[in-house]
Design a protein that fits this description.
By secondary structure, the protein is α/β, with parallel strands linked by helices. It contains eleven helices and eleven strands. InterPro entries: P2CMN_synthase_LarB (IPR039476), PurE_dom (IPR000031).
Length: about 250
């Protein structure tokens, strides 16, 4: 339960002060032996803990997924495999899985999505990372506009979407190869741009390092850069910015 829920239950006489005190005395994480679930993260940061599924043992993933779901009524995992989806689905049939972004989630229905984040991908090969960013932002309550395959090889494509990117509170630019999309967008908008270099490209792209260096060395101002292929990190940071934009 959230802090406000507990306080309201005390106010309404549904919980005693002693019962509420037991909740607040709980340590801010749940010890599972192999993991320490940060159950108070949402209270501190506004974002509940998310599971990085890659490499997790089946039993560990299933247990962590269940605990987080019980705690908050929804849960999300990134970099999940089809096998992990089938494993979780056997216990939680309502779970959803997206093959492209590799996101595994149970989400509350009727969630309000606020503001606007524009997620742009240079090419279709960059869409898996872009979708991880977009779906992360949506899970955390942001409204997302997707602009895919708008890279600099045909710059008229992104120029045709100026109204969308200029009206967003934040823009995520996902690009591999030379990674120039972030610089182009940075010169067109007055809002923060988050560059996401991807590992898409031929040998000299060095698995995304070329795009990473291009984005870090951008002449355009207002560009921050996350790690290679880190769509989740971009979606999270964009949501923080978007929330501030809505409050203004």
């Amino acid at each position: 339960m959230k802090t406000q829920e507990i306080l309201k239950k005390v106010q309404n006489g549904e919980l005693t002060i002693e019962e509420a005190e037991l909740f607040f005395r709980r340590q801010p994480f749940e010890e599972m032996g192999y993991a320490k679930l940060d159950t108070h993260r949402k209270l501190r940061s506004g974002f509940a803990e998310v599971i990085f599924c890659s490499g997790k043992a089946d039993a560990h993933l299933l247990s962590i997924f269940g605990k987080l779901y019980e705690e908050d009524g929804e849960v999300m995992g990134t970099r999940a495999t089809r096998h992990q989806y089938e494993l979780v689905k056997a216990v939680y049939p309502q779970v959803e899985y997206d093959e492209i972004s590799r996101i595994l989630k149970i989400e509350k229905t009727g969630k309000k999505r606020i503001g606007k984040i524009a997620v742009c991908s240079a090419g279709t090969a960059d869409i898996p990372v872009a979708e991880e960013a977009a779906q992360t932002a949506e899970y955390f309550g942001s409204h997302v506009e997707r602009l895919y395959d708008v890279g600099v090889a045909g710059i008229h494509r992104i120029l045709s979407q100026l109204e969308v990117i200029q009206s967003a509170n934040c823009v995520i630019a996902v690009a591999g190869m030379e990674g120039a999309l972030a610089s182009v967008i940075g010169g067109l908008v007055d809002k923060p741009v988050i560059g996401v270099p991807t590992s898409v490209g031929y040998g000299a792209s060095l698995g995304g390092i070329s795009a990473l260096l291009t984005m870090i060395n951008s002449c355009a101002n207002g560009i921050s850069v996350v790690n290679i292929d880190n769509g989740y990190g971009a979606g999270y940071t964009a949501t923080q910015i978007n929330r501030l934009g809505v409050q203004e």
